[in-house]
Amino acid sequence: xxxxxxxxxxxxxxxxxxxxxxxxxxxxxxxxxxxxxxxxxxxxxxxxxxxxxxxxxxxxxxxxxxxxxxxxxxxxxxxxxxxxxxxxxxxxxxxxxxxxxxxxxxxxxxxxxxxxxxxxxxxxxxxxxxxxxxxxxxxxxxxxxxxxxxxxxxxxxxxxxxxxxxxxxxxxxxxxxxxxxxxxxxxxxxxxxxxxxxxxxxxxxxxxxxxxxxxxxxxxxxxxxxxxxxxxxxxxxxxxxxxxxxxxxxxxxxxxxxxxxxxxxxxxxxxxxxxxxxxxxxxxxxxxxxxxxxxxxxxxxxxxxxxxxxxxxxxxxxxxxxxxxxxxxxxxxxxxxxxxxxxxxxxxxxxxxxxxxxxxxxxxxxxxxxxx
Length: 372
Known about the structure:
Blueprint: E1 6-14, E2 20-31, E3 41-44, E4 72-73, E5 78-79, E6 84-88, H1 126-139, E7 145-151, H2 153-164, E8 169-175, H3 183-198, H4 214-227, H5 231-237, H6 258-271, H7 276-287, E9 306-311, H8 320-332, E10 337-341, H9 350-353, H10 359-367
Parallel strand pairs: 3-6, 3-7, 4-5, 7-8, 8-9, 9-10
Antiparallel strand pairs: 1-2, 2-6
């Protein structure tokens, strides 16, 4: 599929913390057609470092399609000949320097000053991401969603949607996520942010647009890349090979192993289109995630949608027992819940790169008639 990036605008938006943001702009894209009664819409929410680009390509020559292209498209599990699929960039999207991303955040110009907001931008929450998506859905005249789904932070948004608007969707598919943040993950998220704030170039968030704290941002993305994957991938892909063929590992202090060079290259490519302050804001939004007012699994008992929860036993971000506890909490509220495992060598990223074998399970779940 060739897809087009569109822009949704809100003249003003009030955050969950009560602060006003003017001239909000987010990018969004869609696949398939909205039917006459607007009842076939599926909302896809993206992961921490992701964008609205869930499927297809912007141009025929693009090397990579959207992250869930294995699932979304004509005849695929999320069949765009049957469903209208939409996805939007979140507020404070990490990829603020990607020309295909439209997002309002610290890197945006404050209309009051004409300069980047920096740390004067209000803190935002997962609930705020959902509120902007809700405004987009309302703008499109969609009163009920066929389903809401997404991986990782997209799964957090899915759960927040189902708690905030329990009658607005028939189904949810939260993938590689959990219904509350535990202390372990909160601490890890803090470590993701730490290299940026330790970089002198960060300047307490007041860096110039062309003078990012690139060293800190790149190191942060190395940490994220490694934790979001698994040793099954690194060991099979790289082993103990040295990056420079024929070099001795003890030839010099700076001699790199192949796995180090690979992770560094991935992180450097991501850093080139990312914004450091946006990463910090995303960390805070995830640390403070709450699907409902209590911030505990009890909030999930408000969910009424049929639920298919997919998780990876090898996940090093959202631990398997936390995912299973989330499914159990939803079931306690009376909603029908199914659980399935995603297996692969990528750990947390199995929810992106190894989800295709679950395609038929997802297809059947989406096609099943809603409960009476």
